[in-house]
Structure formats: C-alpha cells, structure tokens
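Supplementary Methods S3. Complex input for the FE2/S2 (inorganic) cluster-bound model.
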Amino acid sequence: MITLKVNGVTRRFDGDPEMPLLWYLRDLLELTGTKYGCGRGLCGSCTIHVNGVQVQSCVTAIGSADGKSVATIEALGANVDHALQRAWMKNNVPQCGYCQSGQLMTAAALLKEKPKPTDQDIDTAMAGVICRCGTYQRIRQAIKDAAEVAL
Amino acid sequence: MRQITVINRRSFLGGLITAGAFVLGTRLLPSLVQGAAKTESASWSPSIFLGLEPDGSVIIVAHRSEMGTGIRTALPAIVADEMDADWGRVRIEQALGNSKYGSQNTDGSQSIRDFYDTMREAGATARQMLIAAAAARWGVPSGECSTAKHEVIHAKSSRRAGYGELAAGAAKQPVPKKSDLRFKSPADHRYIGQDMPVSNLKELCSGRGVFGIDATMPGMVHASIERSPVLGGKLKSHDDSETLKVKGVLKTVVLEGFSPPHGFKALGGVAVIADNTWSAMKGRQALKAEWDPGQNASYDSEVYKKDLMATVSKPQKAARNVGNVDAEFAKNAKSHEAYYYVPHLAHAPMEPPAAVAEVKDGKAVIYAATQNPQAVQDTVAAALGIDKKNVECHVTLLGGGFGRKSKPDYVAEAALLSKAVGRPVKVTWTREDDIRFDYFHSVAAMYLKASLDARGKPTALLQRSAFPTIISTFNGAAAEGAPFELGMGLTDMPFEIPNIRAENGPAKHHVRIGWLRSVSNIFHAFALHSFIDELARLANRDPVEYLLDLVGKPRKIDFKAEGTDYSNYGKPLDKFPVDTGRLRRVVELAAEKSGWGNKKSGNGRGYGIAVHRSFLSYVAVVVEVEAGANGRVTIPRVDVAVDAGTIVSPDRVKAQFEGAAVFGASIALMGKITATKGVIDQSNFDSYPVARITEAPFKTHVHLVPSSDPPAGVGEPGVPPIAPAICNAIAAANGKRIRDLPINPVA
Ligand code: FES
Ligand code: FES
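Predicted complex, serialized as structure tokens:
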C-alpha cells in the first residue's frame, strides 16, 4: 500500500507501484491538468512537484512517491492567483494551452530557487518544456513579470 | 474510481444554445430552423449562431475549433460588436458537429476570412430586430432609435429598453433582408480590432481546460493500439497471453485493416483495452504481433530522395507558362540554377490524437479534439455503417492541431472499439504513434533556374517541384501535385519576370500524406526565396533592394490572361488579388522595423529576408541569426510585417505570427521524418525534435499593416517565409548556403 499526499489530500494506492504518477493523477484521481506529451521525460508537459521538487510525472513511478507530498497545477493558485498565473494572463501566454501546466509548474520551481532569474536562468530552466504553439517569448516575459511582483 | 461525467463538464464542453430556445426562422442558414423549431422557450434566436434570453444573456455559438488561435473568442466578438451587445453578458457555447453551420473544418486559415461577414450579419440582424421591437413598443419610427451597449435608445423621448426585455418582442419582428442590413462603421467597432479577453484564459492557466485527452464518460475504458509499422501491412498473427496478465488489462480487440484509399479510415491493428491508460500501454508492450508489411516496405527515404531529385532534373508538365523560358535560356548565357530539398515533417501537436466514443443502440456520442467535427460524423458513420445524423460530435479544446486533427482516423478507432466492447472507449495515441503514423507533410524536391540580365535580375525563371500529393490520401493513384498545392508558392510566384514557367513532376506516396500548417508553401517558398537571395548575392546587391526590384511596380497579377489555373485559396481574385503593391509594403515595413539599413552581416552574424503571400495574406520576415563555428544556429530576433486585411484580434494575430516563427524555426533547424524499409525512423522528441525555448527565435516582433481590406488568413501565412529567411541570414553570416533542410538534422 502506497500512501501519498496529493494537493494536500491523503491518498492510498494499492495498485502497481510502477505506474507513473502521471497516469495515477490523470486516470485515477482525474486531475487532468497534468498532461501527457511524450511519456519519456522529453517534453515537460507532465511536470509536477514532489516534496517541492520539480519532476516529470511520466517517468516517476508512484512507488517512489510513497510518503511524499505531490502538488499539481490544480493547486498552484487557489483562485488562479499565483503570481505566475496572473503574469500568464496579463501576457496572454497560452495559445492552445496544452503545455501550459508544465510550463507553469516548471516556472514555479524556478522562481522558488531563483526569485530574480536572468534570461539565461529562464532558458536553462524552461528548456525541458516544449511548446509546439511557440509561446516561449511570452513565457519568458511572464516569468520576469511574476518575479517583479513576487519580490 | 470516481467518474467525472460529461454532465459535470458541460460548461466546458458545451452544447447547443440552451435546449428549448425558440428559434426564429432565419435566412442566414435556413436548414437550422427545422431542428430548432421543436424547441419552446421565451428566448429568441435570430440566427443559428446567436440566442438572447429574457434576462439579457446573449449566447453565441462558437462553431469552429479552438486550438490556440483564440477563434472561440474572436468570432463571437464580431457578432457581439454588430449586435451592440455587452461583452460581459455574452456566453459562448461550443457547437456540436452539424452541417447547418456551414464548414466547421478549422483549417486553411479560414475562420475569420470565411465567417466575418456571416457573424456580422447575425449580429446586425439581431440589432435591427431589437430596434424594431422597441420602436413598435414606443410607437416611434425605427429610424429614430439607436443602440448602445445592450440597450435600444430613443433619444427624443429619452426612453431606453434593455435587450433582455425586448427579446420576446424582437422575435415577432420580420427578419430584415440581407440587403437591408445596416452595419456599424469601422470607427464604431468596440470589439472588432480590440484585444478581447480570451474566453478560456483562466482555464488554460490552471489546468482546467478540457482537451480530448481529458474527456471521460461513465464506464469508460482506455485503449492503446498496436499498428502495422508499415502503412497497409496486414496482421499475420498475434499473441496476447502476456498482455492479458498485465494488471488493469481487460482484453484485446483486433481492428480490421483499412482498404485503400486510406482517407480518414482507422489504420487497423490490435487494441489493448484496460481500465487506465498506463495499463493499456504496458499491456501493449507485452503484445507480440507479426505483420506482413506489404508493398510500402520498399519505401526508403534515401533512395526516394534520389528519385525525386532525378524527377526535377528533367522537364515536367507545365502548370504555368508566361513568355518563353526556353528561348530566353537559349539566348542568355548568364544563368544560375539550384536544387532544394525538404523532407517529410510530422505535425506533433503537444496533445497527441485522442478521442472518447460511446456507441450504443445505433448511435455514437463522441468527445474529440478535432478540427473537423463534420468529418468526424462522416468518418464514424462510415466506419459503423450508420447515418451521420446519429453521430453526435462534441468538440473539446485541442492541444494544438496544425492540420493533424482535421483527419479523424483516431475517432473512428474509438468508435469501432466502443462498438466492439460495448462501453465508452478512450483512444489515446502515444507520442510514438503520433510521429510514426502521422499524415506526413510531403517530402519535396525543387529545381530552379534563372537567366540573368546585366544587373543580375532574372529574364526568365523556371521553378520545378515534385512531391507526393495530398490527393493520394483519397485516391491512391494520384501522383501529381493538385492545382491547390501548386497554387501554394509555385504557380503564384509574384515577381516581375518576363518569362516564367512552373512545372510539377509525379511522385508516388508510401505513407499517408496530409496538410500541415501552410502546406506546400513550406517547400515551394523555401526554394523560391532562397533562390532569389542567391541571385541577389550573385549580383552583389542588397537583398532588400533586389527583392523590391523583383516585386516591381504595384500591379495585380492577371492569372486568367496568362492561362494559369490558380485557385487563390478558394477566393475570387477580384476581391483578393495577388497585389504586388501590398507585397512591397510588407517588405518595406519589415526592412524598416528591423533596422535593415543599419545592419551589417558577417563574422557569424547575419540578416536575411523573405516575403511570401499565402492564405491571402502578405508576410515579410527579417531574421537575425548567429551562426557559430560549430554549426549551431541561434535566432536572436525576427521581425514580421503582416498585411492580413482587417484584423479582428490584434494580440491573437501577433501570437499566431510569433508561434509561426517558432514553427518555421523547427522546420528549418531540425524537422525531418524519414523511412527505412517502410518504417518511420523517428518516434519521439529525441529523434524528432522541435524547437525549444533555447532554439526558438528569442524575440519575434510582429508589425501589422493597418488595413480595411477584407480579412485574410493568419494561422498559417507566418510559416512559409521563416525557413528561407533563416537560411538567407546564415548565408549572410558565413557564406554557407543551405539547400537541404533541416540545417541540423539529428545524427
Ligand atoms: S510527458 Fe512527461 S516529459 Fe513528456
Ligand atoms: S500553448 Fe500549445 S503547446 Fe504550448
């Protein structure tokens, strides 16, 4: 039996411990904000936080999260009011929006580590998250805007 | 497992105008009246796109698919503007698939250009009938009444009435004739041309948007399908004993292979059905299947490339002929020629194809990320042998489309599997499925030759291309480019050259060929605009000055007089001419805004330009590159000048061109799909990379030409000029000319 906290709620799971967190979140908990994009740790669409650390949920077995605390996009801002979400809306960042959960969760981890990131910091941190619609320049701007606000 | 049912998601997934809306007969699309006449309610619907409730809520139907362009906001904004409605009281509902809306195929950069007038008519009709209702109530002439933000006003008597309270009366007014409709003057537009808040922005920033891959139905199971690695291969045998041992796997189902032509039919294969996606995928990995690969196993990209190159090295059928190219070549000793090549490309939207279907009692209910719900109806109906009226297609949000999701083979799979297992089924393609079994963008070879005058300007131009045609997807025998494909960058070559010939040669298809964002413009534009830049450099002339010289005097190309079969994106040339004056203006604007005149190329930094008209829009691009000694190319800046006629949503239009620059950079830098023995060599973002934040242009500046011309396309026309402009910039930076894409293929 695996016990973990997801967005503050304690959950128990007695299925296959190899199941990636991505599918546990999406199919069993119906937290569909976390997206599948590649299943191999290549695109970042599935980024979540485990014990505050950014991970790619498609390559993270649920067994490895036993006793840990998982946070997903659904819990980023209670009323979509995280500094990043506000900056995202101000800059009209999303196009299709599919990659944006992964972008936001990655950006949130970056700002925790580097509250005032440079362009270089942003590009390094965000390079793992693909946006096929090409919203990168607005992502960069929104992260900078959020960093201003957060300080 | 707790189910989120579709009912809970109605507000996201939408339905039609409130069930029970009273629909007034409308001329806009009279076929609607029937379906809706059964309904009863005090609310009023002056058009199939529009309803008004007694409380003043306005319901506007979004009938096109939202895949990131903002169309779900832009079309309703046009209706609301002409209606003079308060945007805060507008509710947007996503339409089901239904031919009553006209085309819902969200493709070809058509949504605004094809429905701008329709939306204005819907809004103006409502506004005029509301005015008539108020005038009747007050006993005053309609002509003395006006509207302002959700109210009719009679200024003389200082009377006002809200739209909600007028709804019932308006429903009784005669519907104005189209010729009697009065439209706002552009100066009075309050939403058109403004940046309206994107309707689902909050959902998209919080993981709450519902995409096809997120849709669920009660009792739903999940499917992952093993398919023949070679297109058209037949299942010889399979062994699912290990599969069935995987926890969560329920069963396997064999889907029959398709019979050519493939069209949008399900590919066939062995489906693993499980109670969650991962078990389905894991069960599929444990499956043993043997295939008879069939005739497409001969497909080998290296051999095929040589064949295509050989085809364009010989004279082919002319699709455009002006003057006498051969005579000019014979008498003019100075000439230049070059071959170009662009490989297959995959769409790779971030959301892979996904759909949910429930087939029960001869009816199908579908939730799908689709660009074309009517094609879903047709395809599912044909697959199941039922009437399309019995296919109800709900359109979810799309996690990108780029043309892939106009082709509903994956929806047919879900429907066939639901029928087989008697439960709702969700089909989720893996990324590997998406890349290996795509409807690929055509691989293409091009040959260009020009004879040159003393200043290095062409006196004759020959363009020749060969590529497997999209038509082959629907007619297996088709081997030549269709006029619409040749009309994308070949037969519409706009430069002022006295002798022109465009030729196209045959090419066989071995994979499914499909349209991808900007279609055959991609390779035709790459060749043409690279070649033009080569000519400018040969002549030692500034590329912008040379380009403007080639664009020539403002004129409208008379294709008819030439005898050229040019389809102009399905639009009449008198309303949407190929206007070189507009071409010139965007070149000048891009040059000015990028500071072209002050830029010096060389030492690994270079500036390149390209201009291309497509989807009725004129786009010039100046790209700045840094080309390192290690071959690494970065793109610090792109300037895009756009004349797309009337602009409805400036910020969303800019976003489309920013995105197109990234899409174009992926094509130029790394896009490459190849086959070996009929099997696609690439499968995920390691072998088929797309531009990341580190490779995409750092900053794209979009400059819109103010215009009151009719609206033209914006989703696609930003793509074609990017790759040639990048390669022209590289040539300027270090003298290296790239004629084979991509620039940095995966080893
Ligand atoms: S889905 Fe996890 S990194 Fe792509
Ligand atoms: S917004 Fe569409 S993939 Fe990023």
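The first strand of chain A starts at residue 2 and ends at 6. The CA atoms of residues 125 and 135 of chain A lie 15 Å apart.
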